[in-house]
Specification:
Layout lengths: L4 H27 L8 E10 L4 E3 L1 E6 L2 E7 L10 E12 L1 E6 L11 H7 L2 H17 L2 E6 L8 H10 L7 E4 L4 E2 L19 E2 L2 H15 L4 E4 L1 E2 L8 E2 L3 H13 L4 E5 L2 H10 L3 E4 L5 H9 L3 E3 L2 H10 L11 H15 L19 H9 L5 H15 L16 E5 L12 E6 L2 E2 L2
Parallel strand pairs: 1-5, 6-7, 7-8, 9-10, 11-14, 14-15, 15-16
Antiparallel strand pairs: 1-2, 1-3, 3-4, 5-17, 12-13, 17-18, 18-19
Helix pairs in contact: 3-4, 5-6, 6-7, 11-12
The protein binds zinc ion.
Protein name: Amidohydrolase-related domain-containing protein
Organism: Hymenobacter cavernae
Pfam family, one: Amidohydro_1
């Protein structure tokens, strides 16, 4: 159960006292002119998960776009004129933070990645992305780190502006723009006779990568994403791409401008170079070894395993999960995630959403619990306070006085049952209720 009888009654007492105060103020307002639009809201859930732990019987007060008080119901007083949101049987959480999305992509079983990059217009992709942003927000994700437009140029910068200006609903975005790849290493690839538009920006050499990094930052990149390894040819395993020197220059160039660098890396050498260059997170890490995870821990680099992406792609390729034997790739993934946990690496929750449907972001958290042995509490901490810390977002990820009022309410207790995250009842971003 969610609450002890004692805290439950305390919660109701506070909301009751508050309702009395509210009716008084409304009566007063009716006798004069119109009631002012309430800018203060008291949220009364069964329990509050503050980003670290759960507190039964707590309430949260929101004024404007900030959290102004949080604590046991008896200790939080709402001002006269505030409204109340009774969230009985629900848990209030910080708005979730998606660690790895691609708003400009849609699931590969609808359209292959190649065809999205080559045949879909930017207008079509942006129109889709607006729908993706809304679905992401309504699924409880009030912030997303979007790691590359995959051929859609700087469309993520405009998408972020449209959200921030209140033109379309969506999460607060951290955008990577085009991402950096070594010439020849990425895709799409078809005939050798044609030069195709690529899914990321090609750059080489110390001067070339510094220039491309600066270009992306100048256009609005909050974070620089680099592919430290990739498959050079179809069907072959990944190999390192950029040299150690090139990666180091990318990180130094970005760091000087206050931008972190994140690396798509899956080979031990690609991961190692990215860590030594000073990236902040490693994305995917499929073939990480105990040695590279040890190095990751030593350098304070966090790991975003994106388990849902591989799981989805294998099913698109015909794997009938639960019926067919588990593919080697899944077994390897489990071994690498286990090695990272053993090494004490910090985890980032991010699913590589776009490979699978936007709004289905909870899939990563469900898989981490069901297939990878994490507890629901660990996964929730990753998706809130954990991601906020790794992404340098000191103003969110926890429920505490002074932080942004990015809050969601779900039916039940997600720290016990991760599927409760599918039951999002309320979404508030910056004090504005979207659901
Ligand atoms: Zn990705």
């Amino acid at each position: 159960m969610l609450t002890s009888p004692r805290s439950f009654s305390a919660r109701h007492l506070a909301c009751l006292l508050f309702a009395v105060a509210l009716s008084g103020s409304l009566a007063q307002a009716q006798s004069t002119v119109q009631a002012p639009t309430p800018t203060t809201t008291l949220l009364c859930p069964a329990a509050v998960f503050d980003g670290k732990e759960t507190h039964a019987g707590w309430v949260v007060l929101v004024s404007g776009n900030k959290i102004t008080a949080v604590g046991p119901a008896a200790q939080v007083t709402a001002p006269v004129g505030a409204r109340t949101l009774d969230l009985a049987n629900q848990t209030l959480l910080p708005g979730l933070i998606e660690g790895h999305s691609h708003m400009l992509l849609h699931p590969y079983n609808e359209t292959s990645w190649n065809d999205q990059v080559l045949t879909e217009s930017q207008a079509l992709r942006v129109a889709r992305a607006t729908a993706h942003a809304q679905r992401t927000l309504l699924a409880g994700f009030t912030t997303a780190r979007d790691l590359g437009t995959e051929g859609a140029g700087y469309a993520d910068v405009g998408l972020k502006q449209a959200i921030d200006q209140g033109i379309i609903p969506g999460p607060r975005l951290l955008v990577a723009t085009r991402a950096l790849v070594a010439t020849g290493s990425y895709g799409p690839k078809l005939s050798t006779d044609v030069t195709l538009p690529q899914g990321a920006q090609e750059a080489d050499g110390v001067e070339g990568v510094a220039r491309a990094t600066r270009e992306q930052m100048g256009k609005g990149a909050d974070v620089i994403k680099v592919y430290s390894d990739y498959r050079w040819g179809k069907g072959e395993p990944s190999h390192p791409t950029f040299s150690q020197e090139e990666l180091t220059v990318i990180v130094q160039t970005a760091k000087a401008a206050g931008r972190p660098v994140v690396a798509h890396s899956s080979t031990p050498e690609g991961i190692k170079r990215a860590i030594l260059a000073g990236v902040e997170t490693i994305e995917h890490g499929d073939n990480g070894t105990p040695e590279v995870f040890k190095l990751m821990k030593q350098h304070g680099v966090a790991f975003c395993p994106t388990v849902a992406a591989g799981d989805a792609i294998l099913q698109y390729q015909g794997w009938r999960k639960g019926q067919d034997p588990e593919p080697a790739r899944v077994q390897e993934k489990r071994a690498s995630v286990a090695a990272a946990r053993k090494a004490g690496v910090t985890f980032v929750m991010g699913g590589d959403v776009g490979v699978f449907a936007h709004g289905d972001n909870a899939r990563e958290m469900e898989l981490l619990v069901r297939d990878y042995g994490f507890t629901p509490l660990e996964v929730l901490q990753q998706a809130t306070s954990g991601n906020a810390t790794v992404f340098h977002l000191a103003d969110r990820g926890r429920i505490a006085t002074g932080l942004l009022a990015d809050l969601i309410a779900v039916q039940g207790d997600p720290t016990k049952d991760v599927s409760a995250l599918r039951q999002v009842q309320m979404v508030m971003k910056g004090g504005v209720v979207y659901k």
